[in-house]
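Most newcomers find our protein records easier to grasp once they have seen one. Each record describes a single protein and holds just a pair of labelled lines. A learned vocabulary of local backbone shapes supplies the integers on the structure line. Nothing more is needed to start thinking about how sequence determines fold. The record below serves as our worked example for the rest of this section.
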Amino acid sequence: MRFQSMHTMRKLKLAAPERRQQLVSIAMQQISRKGFEGLRFQEVAKQAGINNATLYYHFPTKEALIQGVVNHLTAELKKARSGLSDAPMTALQELRHEFDDIRKLLRATPKLFIVQIELSLRGLRDPDISNAEKQRDHVWREHLSGIIRRGIEQGVFRRDIELEPAVTALIAQFKGIGYDAALGKRSVREIGKTISEIARQVEHYFVWGSAS
């Protein structure tokens, strides 16, 4: 999601779903700039142009607002995968699409990766966030496992791939790409080249058994 203009939205009388979306968007902006410790209820209300009572109506606690951010981030990451063509795809094409999704998210909403890192750090000391992270990772693992299994069945991936280590390695690489992007030390173009190289090595490994 592209973070919406707060100047525009605060002037509008929004329906409940749109208001919640606005508040989550503001919270994500604050988290991306200041971390979870910098997230302030009063500042969220102020930026939205509403009073504290209205904010508490939608999100009774700061934890509820953070959970709203978690839910929204998970939905955005799932949405990135929804652009698959209706035409049948091989597992190799699906794998390539995963890396394309990362590129698109980096161009459209790079702050998502910053918020994701903040969520991971928060999860180390917040059981609720940790559980949400584990649940998301489980869905992610099942999704990637399905691609690899289909690739083996279709004969486009080698048959001796060890599924669990391969999925773990893929997730680690995707998260690493996000971490590298969040540091902000390299341009999107440079990161895009890195993604292409990682994708090339992964594809080579899955097909031939070597990342070289």
Summary: Residues 69-208 form a domain with the Tetracycline Repressor; domain 2 fold (CATH 1.10.357.10). The first helix runs from residue 6 to 9.
